[in-house]
Amino acid sequence: MIWILAIVAVYVVLVLGVAFLSLRPYRTPIFVSPGSMGANQEEISFESDGITLRGWWVEADGAGTVAVLAHGYMMNRAELVPVAFWLWQRGISSLLFDFRAHGRSGGKKCGFGYLERCDVAAAVAYARSRAPGAKILLIGSSMGSAASALALGEGLAEANGLVLDSCYSKLAGAILGWWRFLGGKVLQVALWPTVYLAAPLAGFNPFKVDVAESLAKNESTPTLFIHGTRDTLALPTEAQRNFAACRAEKQLVWLQGYGHSEGRWEEPATYYGALEEFLARHALLREPAGKV
């Protein structure tokens, strides 16, 4: 009996430790920048909930649209640099930033998209201050997609276009999906209690964070969904649930045979082709003078 209690105690401590560390992700280094690819680059910072967020402003001459790019969990602003460069070539300015507890931004605790919705709102406010009158385009990857959708659904920000790449539907499912993504169903089963243990550590209830519910409030922002057919973190059924809930003009593009957030790297023609068609249809794209 004592051995059983000891094993249970060790397991609980282990799971608690995993939940604690998950809320304080490893900060991956910056690995590419817009400047290194030939675009304009300005180091910037702004505040979100009293936390200093750091990023880059990528100015395109005469831009009528500014894209706010939101990265995924355990990533940083560098993740979407290729997208920002592609947009810059087409006359669209970009704001890339590190979420709280990621990259070089302040903060010690992340919220898997829920707390980060405030960071997206702060980024949009900063973009509007730099480019008054410009249209706003939100582009997210994974956690950044969820944060963008939540920010719009809760009325924390407004945008003229929304692009959701590999977006989860329910946060509780995404936490389990993360373990499934890392170690398959065995790890998912072994660490399922983290969903419950993370709640008091995070300070909010992950079971109440529902991206589809936020999208159901979206009646005016055109939305492009991009999802891999072999995504094991945010399952294809989650993309279908989000798509069905969205009430605005919408389109769903499948990246055949690809997993979580990898389609834009592995199948760039499909990703950027869908993005360009979406931007052109909603008057967010202009042909720049002197396209690089």
Beta-strand proportion: 15-25%
- The total count of helices amounts to 11
Query: Any idea what the CATH superfamily is called?
Result: Alpha/Beta hydrolase fold, catalytic domain
- Count of individual domains: 1
Order of strands, widest sheet: 1-2-4-3-5-6-7-8
- The CATH level-2 architecture is identified as 3-Layer(aba) Sandwich
The sequence of SSEs as H and E is HHEEEHEHEHEHHHEHEHH
Question: Taking Cα atoms only, what radius of gyration do you get, to the nearest Å?
Answer: 19 Å
Briefly note the CATH topology name. Answer: Rossmann fold
Mean pLDDT: 93
Shape by Cα distribution: globular
Fraction of residues in H or I helices? 40-55%
Write a structural description.
The chain is globular. The N and C termini lie far apart (71 Å). It has a single domain, classed as Rossmann fold (3-Layer(aba) Sandwich). The protein has helices at 2-22, 34-37, 81-89, 116-130, 143-153, 171-190, 194-202, 211-216, 236-245, 263-266, 268-281, and strands at 42-48, 51-58, 65-70, 93-97, 135-141, 161-165, 223-228, 250-255. Helix 9 (236-245) links the parallel strand 7 (223-228) and strand 8 (250-255). It is of the alpha/beta class and 292 residues long. Helix 1 crosses helix 7 (194-202) and helix 4 (116-130) crosses helix 5 (143-153). It contains 11 helices and 8 strands.
